[in-house]
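User: Is it possible to get a 3D structure for a protein together with its bound compound? The compound here is S-adenosylmethionine. I've pasted both below.
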Amino acid sequence: MGDLARRIAGLPDDARAKLASLLKGRAEAARTAATGAASPPVAPAADDRLLLDASAPGEPAALKASYKRFYDSVTTQLDSSPFGQFSYFLNYGYVPDGSPEYAVVALPDHYLNKNSVKLVLELAGDSPIQGKRVLDVGCGRGGTIHTLKTFFAPATLTGLDLSTTAVEFDRKAHGDARTSFHEGDAEHLPFAGGAFDVVTNVESSHSYPNIHRFYSEVHRVLAPDGRFLYTDALSLQQIAASLAYLDHLGFELEHNRNITRNVLLSCDQVAATRVQAFDSRNDQQLMQNFLATPGSQVYEEMRSGRWEYRILTLRKRR
Ligand SMILES: C[S@@+](CC[C@H](N)C(=O)[O-])C[C@H]1O[C@@H](n2cnc3c(N)ncnc32)[C@H](O)[C@@H]1O
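Assistant: Yes, that's possible. Here is the predicted structure of the complex:
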């Protein structure tokens, strides 16, 4: 991330100091989360319509519209924070716990968004990515695309997300001759059959009303022998149904890893710090679930084992 380092160096002194304290504040954040002490809010939104609220309609189209509004607001709030230009990730991240690791790239101790980058590196493992055509579905603010571009030299990178503002950010932050972004729906991918060699999907599929339709679309847009690199937190029931459906579609399972403990360790470290990047007037319960702060419902579902955060690596059979 040499470009980021240069941009950080170019920040005014006070913003650079704040960023350094946010990055360094992870241990303190874990303590704060454990004691339940409130973090000081920063970056108040200028407009109340941008506040995140917990209304969640049940119909698929309404649900998608609600997710789109939610992630549009998330992106807008991050954009108006002093650190928005460095916020490439919206995932919980991964922290090693002594269990086998699959990343082929070692990150230095202090690395921007280290836990989220590590999640992507664990997902990528030693999969063939160099020189390949990569699609990232639910790309958010482009962190997966940025990481793959930095470490694996794919031929082309394509990002797709439901959120208009996320895609606008992505085009500015990451767009170049071989990197493009599309606004769209994971259940209706606007690409020709066989157009990609690798499809990635990071912590996004739990939002899709028809997750099997998404799997069918991934299978369609992948070339034979293509890889589907997939990670998310799902209920045990959903995981069983997903594995059966992916097999039925013609995917061969290469890796199936339960990384819940690694993700919870990351939430312990960073969730409280991340709260600071958002408007303090958002629905706080929703924010705690979105960030999986310790004690939130999402965190407890994972801690109890009712939900598991998995990495699935699949190959489309020839
Ligand atoms: C938790 S964020 C993760 C973003 C990114 N993958 C990352 O790791 O930072 C989930 C993303 O999925 C996107 N999303 C939700 N539903 C979607 C859909 N039906 N189609 C495409 N993207 C969707 C959201 O807009 C959001 O950017």
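The pocket of S-adenosylmethionine is lined by residues 64, 67, 71, 89-91, 138-140, 143-144, 161-163, 166, 185-187, 202-204, 207-208 (CB under 6 Å). Residues 94 and 118 are 6 Å apart (CA to CA).
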